[in-house]
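Run: sequence + NAP -> complex structure.
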Amino acid sequence: MPEPLRSYVAGEWRAGTATLEDVNPARPSEVVAEVQAADAALAEEAITAARAAFPAWRDTPAPARGEILRRAADLLEARAEDVGRDLAREEGKTLAEAIGETRRAVAILRYYAGQTLEPDGETYPSASRSTFLYARREPVGVVLAITPWNFPIAIPAWKLAPALAYGNCVVWKPAELVPLTAVHFTRAFADAGLPAGVLGVVLGRSGDVGATLLAGPVEAVTFTGSNEVGRRLQLEAIARGAKVQLELGGKNPAVVLADADLDLAAEQVARGAFLSAGQKCTATSRVIVERAVLEPLAERLVEHARGWRLGDPLDPRTVVGPLASPAQLERVAGYLDGARRDGGTALAGGGPAAIDGGYYMQPTVLAGLGPESAVVREEVFGPVAALLPADSYADAVDAANDTPFGLSAAVFTRDLGRALRFAKDVRAGVVKVNQESAGLELHVPFGGTKASSSGSREQGKAAREFFTEWKTVYVD
Ligand code: NAP
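>> structure
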């Protein structure tokens, strides 16, 4: 067993007070790593170190900050296969997905390295002849980043890279389930020469360090995770005067209209619903189908669900790995039990799969459920798609919007006018036409409407809004 994983505080790898085990969800008897979990005192130190490092980092020329990000990207790229393998071992997504996600983090680092060469302000005409008037964007200060386990390197990358590029210091609390990926990502920054204290990484349980981190003197909190936790943290952070960005859950619809290419629609819906075992905030979970094509679409979707190979994420033949934890398995199984009680039928899958004692759930297609069933209303976060019939386009749009969430939505049709109409009618932050609801590009704004998000958008140039603030300067 390699050395236990440690937090990274003030430029040093620091031991913790408790030892946790990082377990492979495909084979829970396999301990991937041991973690020395931080306590509240170490979490506090991370914030103190970030505050101390902020003035010098803010004053470092932006292109020099970008150079460090570029070096971190190069190091991570060279290590992508090893990092991806460890990510797959601790989180459970397939090796191809895990290496792909690591390479996405590399690309995000390079994108924000490039952003450090972009204009950082604007000049304005002044009402006075003798005044030179300009406004520029400055870093907000120390940012607390709290991230989930489902994209353990891409989500941290799309928070940390812009935060650091724009001159903020960051204290990062990764999810408890994925400490090894967090350490790999942190090493890339440390080895790239990021000055001590600019990035602090606190490994451990939210129960031990969460309250301290949130009570600390930070200017901003960026959180991705569940609605339940996010809303609670939002109230605490706002009460302390911090700005807050939340990316929360989804209940993403895919609408299949009667004129759709059904082979394409079924394949894309299956990808959106089952890849990464459905553990994506943008995963497809409601498949709303015009009645005329309900049966042929269902047949095709069932064929995908039954045909996709479930198994060890490191086996190249595997398409769907396990869920990330026993809690996840229990949660998804609970929704499937509820679906049965509500009169639903599993056309494919319908329960766990016994493989090596891992937390596997079969790709599942449900039918016969009404809009009030919990599996149709709430975020399941597993490989489960519920088929819902629609009588018309208008009926389909109403069904798509009949949710408290508004993250992502897909429509399948050959009618361009209908597609564009749907893009207007649906209340979601991301709309896909003839593409799965999941899958994002890194240089465009990302976020949701309604209960899915709060605060300004992430990714692309939109990230600047959260991680900087305007300073307006009048020069006479
Ligand atoms: P979660 O339970 O809300 O946890 C998210 C993060 O918050 C973890 O790092 C967790 O740490 C931490 N946390 C929990 N309680 C805390 C507290 N009291 N104080 C400080 N930190 C605390 O969510 P998850 O299960 O990891 O992730 C799944 C959820 O994320 C789903 O709802 C999914 O939709 C959402 N998600 C949204 C997006 C998006 O962009 N909209 C993207 C991906 C995922 P511990 O692990 O130590 O508890």
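>> summary
The chain is about 40% helix and 20% strand. The chain has a mean pLDDT of 98.
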